[in-house]
Amino acid sequence: MTGVDVQGRGGGRGTASVAGGAPPPAGESVPVEALQTSGGPRTGGEDAEHVQLLAALHTPLPPIVVHRPTMRVIDGAHRLRAALLRGDDHIMVRYFDGAEADAFVLAVQLNSEHGLPLSLSDRKAAAARIVASHPQWSDRRIAEVVGLAANTVGAVRQRSTAQNEQPNASIGRDGRVRPRNGAEGRLRAGELMRANPEASLREIARLAGISAATASDVRARLNRGEPLVTPQQRQAVARESPSGAMVRRSFRPDGPASDVLLVSLSKDPSLRLTMAGKILLRALRVCSVDADGWARIVEAVPPHRQEVVARLARECATAWQCLADRLSERTAETSTEAG
Question: Given the DSSP bridges, would you call strands 169-171 and 3-7 parallel, antiparallel or unpaired?
Fold first, then answer.
């Protein structure tokens, strides 16, 4: 949701962007008994002293914002309580017709922009709710709405019960889609570059879900033989859950890159028509299980066999590393001879 339409008197519409901008003052008169105040971002309810101050004002207050489908107050619960305290039976209202989850986002935004500020606990609770309802939003985008630091929202996301449902990409404040884990995007880009060295940076960036600048940095690191993932990204990965998240990142990166490489190898007659080549392809296919598949395998190993399986897995890893080293040596020798 990049903006919300708020309808006032005569059907006119104004827009209140989630990134900022107050709605226009137009409204229509609605009976106070038709409105509800539950489900808002203030977990402790309205502030009685603030209601008293508003009730004592002699100037008209701005219209409140109401979610039309549910008639819940999005912004203006204190003004509604003040109207009831004065004995008013009607209040000026502007309607919002969007989804209920978007109505809550608007409530948080408007309460953060004016009136009585939300408490820190209310803002954190709001962040958790928005993380669950808008998981595709970046931490920075949610932070801007709730008035918290982006790293605080990131910590809220990690603790969220919806953590396992979080997507691999997020939508930032500028509307652009970016991978939530930058390390994964870099690894995908590296695989794509190895599979197709002639591909343009723009195409690599599109397929890997990263920026062209990041793709350029990945290509430079690849040419220099440096790690594709920055030290900061490796530290960020290490801070994640050691059991779940790290298991997923210990195997091949998810995405199309490894699949593209394996399909390309399978079509090579020099491999698929020889016994050694068939053995290699079969072994590579076994190791191409995706992250979720590896996680299920880990869970399937009984506790009394974990150490044995771990030992055999390390031996297999050593064998694969030896193969990779010998192939790299042959590549270097070939390059030297060609030079």
Answer: unpaired
Please give the Cα distance from 168 to 166 (Å, whole number).
7
Beta bridge partners of 90: 31
Q: What is the pLDDT of residue 252?
A: 47
Element (H, E) at 92: strand 90-96
- 70 token code pair: 């549910």
* CA atoms of 38 and 65, how far apart (whole Å): 14
Length of the chain, in residues: 339
Hey, what are 124's tokens? 């954190």
DSSP H stretches of helix in the chain: 48-56, 77-86, 100-113, 120-133, 139-146, 150-159, 182-195, 201-208, 212-224, 231-239, 245-249, 256-266, 269-272, 275-286, 291-300, 306-338
Please list the residues that pair with 169 across neighbouring strands.
Answer: 179
Q: What pLDDT score does 329 carry?
A: 82
Distance CA 104, CA 39 (A): 8
Return the closest-CA partner of residue 146 out of 180, 112, 178: 112
**Which residue, among 14, 107, 32, has the nearest Cα to 65 in the 3D structure?**
107
**Listed residue (67, 65, 89, 92) closest to 77, CA to CA:** 65
Which ranges of the chain have pLDDT less than 70? 1-26, 114-115, 160-182, 232-261, 289-293, 335-339
Three-class secondary structure assignment of 110-171 = HHHHCCCCCCHHHHHHHHHHHHHHCCCECHHHHHHHHCCCHHHHHHHHHHCCCHHHCCCEEE
Residue 93 is predicted with a pLDDT of 92
Q: How far apart are CA 218 and CA 40, in angstroms?
A: 45
User: Tokens in use for 95?
Assistant: 């309607």
